[in-house]
Amino acid sequence: MVKPKKRKTVTGEKILSVQDLHVTFKTYGGTVQAVRGVNFDLYKGETLAIVGESGCGKSVTSNAIMGLIQQPPGKISSKGVHFKSQDLTKLSKKEMRKIQGVDISMIFQDPMTALNPTLTIGEQLTEGVKQHKNLSKAEAKQRAIDMLKLVGIPNPDERLKQYPHQFSGGMRQRIVIAIALICEPELLIADEPTTALDVTIQAQILELFEEIQAKTGVSIILITHDLGVVAKIADRIAVMYAGKVIETGDKREIFYHPQHPYTKGLLNSVPRLDLAGGELQPIDGTPPDLFAPPTGCPFAARCPFSMDVCTNVYPEVTALSETHKVDCWLQDPRAQKLIDEQAFAR
């Protein structure tokens, strides 16, 4: 696993606050409770990684923030999704379109499907900036050239005339990033931005994110299941499980002092070069059915330290530090000490 870097300094200015976000989907088989009471904040210039296994609600959360949930069959409720002074859940579709791609932008998983194969890169880069920034054709072209330079694509004047199939996977991902940033958003949501790339290209894209953030000050929400990616660029981490954020903390708190058994299990299931020859420790069992989620802790059935109260009552959040919070009965002062230091150590 990549050793987590020291957290960079970020301002105390809150740019996004998600409060008690719920997202459900009606299906023929019933109602899926995909996101169940998610809470987190994002600060200016910060990178927040939302991590968890497939199906935990990471992408649904990001799509809800972006206003991309089709209603119906989806339904969103919350106490507020505040982007600066606006509650995004209260905006009309017309009002939301003025924010999408301008103030808040998103990078999707697969760069091949994110780009239109019938349009040149130049057409796709300039479309949004001409519409939202009222630039002339020449001004939009120059902005597109500048963005391609920023993301490290050589000969941008000529590249604008080419089509997506003429670029490698890594180059396509750089173009997708350029499209997301061309209107100078304050918030960038990156949904599994390195999943379809090989390891070498992944490293280049992650370095690009760091360079762009240093130059522009953009805040980033990184959706991923790759803890190596998280260790590389995240400042804080929110761990999701079964539609809930069960632990949040500074990157070093999560990697070196995880307090939720699921977080610890997630870290232990990742191969590590410094433990050559050791066996991986998979998490037994499967996630709960979100058609009928449990009333207590959703991890209780898989947790080796589960108590009766875990099954019946969802734990209140426990603040372990200014940045480290966890939803776990084991942190309750009334809970018996079930985990000794050796069992919870690396």
Automatic annotation (TrEMBL):
Belongs to the ABC transporter superfamily. SUPFAM superfamilies: P-loop containing nucleoside triphosphate hydrolases. It is a peripheral membrane protein. It comes from the Bacteria. Residues 16-267 form the ABC transporter domain. Keywords: ATP-binding, Cell membrane, Membrane, Nucleotide-binding, Transport. It comes from Planococcus plakortidis. GO terms for molecular function: ATP binding; ATP hydrolysis activity. SMART domains: AAA. Pfam families: ABC_tran (PF00005), oligo_HPY (PF08352). This is Peptide ABC transporter ATP-binding protein. It is found in: Cell membrane. Its main location: membrane. The lineage of its organism: Bacteria, Bacillati, Bacillota, Bacilli, Bacillales. NCBIfam families: oligo_HPY. One of its GO terms (cellular component) is plasma membrane. GO terms for biological process: peptide transport.
